[in-house]
Amino acid sequence: MNTDTARSDDSGDAGDGPEYTFDDVSVVMGTYNEEAAIGTVLDDIERVTDGRAEVVCVDGSSDRTPEIAREKGAQVVEQEPQGYGVAVREALLTPDRPVVVTTDCDDTYPMDQLPEFLDWINRGYDVVSGDRLYWGAEAMPDLNRWGNYAFAALTSLLMGELVHDTTTGMRAYRRDVIETIRWTENTGLSAELLIRPQMRGYDVREIPIEYDERAGETKLDPFAGGAAIAKSIVKVCLDER
Ligand SMILES: Nc1nc2c(ncn2[C@@H]2O[C@H](COP(=O)(O)OP(=O)(O)O)[C@@H](O)[C@H]2O)c(=O)[nH]1
Ligand SMILES: [Mg+2]
């Protein structure tokens, strides 16, 4: 995996694949009572992609989140709330555009960096992963930040390769990566979505991203969720060996 921006083989484009634009991109997310954030998140995507990226929300809300999403032009797939990974897996598999970007619907992730994610896909990468910890993630609660450092260390140890942020919610994927691999995890899906492609030899790249304070309440219990993620990391790494 590679995070430095000055690698010589990154300078040109990949040459072979097509050059994707936002007409080829779906931005997808699970949404669960995100009334406080969804308007801003969808407006940001619209502004940054000139309204060209398609948006898919897999929604389990009991508040006005799905109405707001539809008003703003997103495709809403209704689903009983069953956890992060169940929603995000459905969200990843719903669109058919060649590039899929995941985000949380909580206004923490920088939609302004969508062009950078697309750029790295166009340079030939299969997975582009937003590294929240690179700039320190001061807006993240301390417990989450230390947990995320620990998850990255555990993953690096088990994979035998350095990874800086295993549990980030903002990534771009080529569609064939999503469709080729069978996904098994729920709370740990974000880690699985990085580990399996990396251990199967896909070209994975981390890029530094900004991380903002959350709008609205977190849907993840830090202790139960953290334990589930650690378990997924161990299971998936052993599985891929
Ligand atoms: N549809 C659906 N979305 C969910 C569920 N659990 C979490 N989400 C969404 O997944 C994203 C990540 O959850 P979040 O609370 O931000 O987790 P955190 O970033 O770890 O604090 C958010 O957009 C949530 O609304 C669920 O059970 N169903
Ligand atoms: Mg979040």
In short:
The protein has 241 residues and is of the alpha/beta class.
List the helices and strands and how they pair.
Elements: E1 25-31, H1 35-48, E2 54-59, H2 65-71, E3 75-78, H3 84-93, E4 99-102, H4 114-122, E5 127-131, H5 142-159, E6 171-174, H6 175-180, H7 189-199, E7 204-208, H8 222-240
Parallel strand pairs: 1-2, 1-4, 2-3, 5-7
Antiparallel strand pairs: 4-6, 5-6
Helix pairs in contact: 5-8, 7-8
Bound molecules: guanosine-5'-diphosphate (GDP) and magnesium ion (MG).
Magnesium ion is lined by residues 104, 106, 108, 169.
Features:
single chain; 241 residues; alpha/beta; Spore Coat Polysaccharide Biosynthesis Protein SpsA, Chain A; seven-stranded mixed sheet; 39% helix; binds guanosine-5'-diphosphate; binds magnesium ion
If you had to describe this structure to a student in words, what would you say it looks like?
The protein is of the alpha/beta class and 241 residues long. It has a single domain (22-240), classed as Spore Coat Polysaccharide Biosynthesis Protein SpsA, Chain A (Alpha-Beta Complex), CATH 3.90.550.10. 39% of the residues lie in helices and 15% in strands. It has eight helices and seven strands. The chain has helices spanning 35-48, 65-71, 84-93, 114-122, 142-159, 175-180, 189-199, 222-240, and strands at 25-31, 54-59, 75-78, 99-102, 127-131, 171-174, 204-208. Strands 3-2-1-4-6-5-7 form a seven-stranded mixed β-sheet. The chain is globular, with a radius of gyration of 17 Å. The relative contact order is 0.18. Bound molecules: guanosine-5'-diphosphate and magnesium ion (MG). Magnesium ion is lined by residues 104, 106, 108, 169. The site of guanosine-5'-diphosphate has 21 residues, from β1, β2 and α3.
